[in-house]
Amino acid sequence: MQCPTCHAPLETPLACGECGALLAASTSDPFELFGLPQSFALELPALRKRLIRFSRWMHPDYFGSRTGPAGEALRLQAEKNTAQLNRAYELLSDDFERASWMLERAGGPGESEERAMPQAFLMEVLEWNEALEAAREAGAGSSERAALDALAATLAEQRSQTLDRVGQLLAPGNRRERDDLVRIRRELNAVRYLEKTLTEIESLRVEQASSSR
Ligand SMILES: [Zn+2]
After folding, report:
1. How remote is the CA of residue 103 from the centroid of ligand 1, in Å?
2. Region 9-27: what's the mean pLDDT?
3. How many angstroms is it from 21 CA to the middle of ligand 1?
4. In sequence order, what E strands does the chain have?
5. ∠ at Cα 69 (67, 73), nearest 5°?
6. Distance 82 CA to ligand 1 centre (A)
7. Most buried of 34, 137, 190, 209 (most Cβ within 10 A)?
8. Separation of 196 CA from ligand 1 center, angstroms?
9. DSSP assignment, residue 10?
10. Is the pLDDT of residue 51 over 80?
11. Crossing angle, helix 178-211 and helix 119-138, to 10 degrees?
């Protein structure tokens, strides 16, 4: 990737850090927009640093002082590029969304096409749902509510293990058949379930904390 204006190598297809040119990117690939190789493993602080640096190059205020139709066009392009960069950041910084995007890019099923969870996971889901239901009914201050701490720790551990597996399955160079892609989606459905359940537990804990005050 080279800047069409000054020919400097580009770090992002949205703008040139060297000469300040705003560019209309021909891609919507969030990894490409951040100048990164497609990989599930991602250093969040490094991504954040790129977001801040690139945002400066395309900040609408920076182009706001130029008047006339050309100035207006620049400002609109700056807004568009900033929005595109922010959307890509939202997607890449979310483990589930990043994996889900990579899976669909590899030809795998979307969330609405494959709704099942891994078989081995289902028995545990039944158990967890029961514990959650019991805690909800028992109300604040009960031992069932106190047991939620351990449950949350278990679910968080499961989430991180499942994401590790997904990361390995999505690693570049891995040959993947249709069955493998479906399997990855099922693992991701498990991640979705775990995140949803962790949020529910969190809200029950907040209730618990406010009632024991
Ligand atoms: Zn340039």
Report:
1. 34
2. 96
3. 5
4. none
5. 100
6. 18
7. 190
8. 45
9. P
10. yes
11. 10
* 78: amino acid identity, one letter: A
Rounded Cα distance between 129 and 59, Å, is 47
Whether the Cβ atoms of residue 197 and residue 155 lie closer than 8 Å to each other? yes
pLDDT value at residue 70: 82
**Rg of the chain, C-alpha, whole Å:** 22
C-alpha of residue 4 to centroid of ligand 1, in Å: 7
Distances (CA, A) of 4 to 36, 132, 170: 20, 58, 34
| Span 138-178, pLDDT tens digits | 888 889 888 999 999 999 999 999 999 999 999 877 778 88
Among all chains, which residue has been given the structure tokens 């969870």?
117
**Cβ–Cβ under 8 Å, residues 153 and 86:** no
Distance 2 CA to ligand 1 centre (A): 8
Distance (angstroms) between ligand 1 centre and the Cα of 87 equals: 24
pLDDT in tens, 177-204: 889 999 999 999 999 999 999 999 999 8
CA–centroid distance, 3 to ligand 1, in Å, is 5
Residues 26, 29, 30, 33, Cα dihedral to 10°: -30
Cα 8 to averaged position of ligand 1 atoms, centre (Å): 6
Taking the centre of ligand 1 as the mean of its atom positions, its distance from the CA of residue 15, in whole angstroms, is 8
> What residues pack around ion ligand 1 (CB closer than 5 A)?
3, 5-6, 8, 16, 18-19, 21
Q: What is the reported pTM? A: 0.89
Distance 59 CA to ligand 1 centre (A): 16
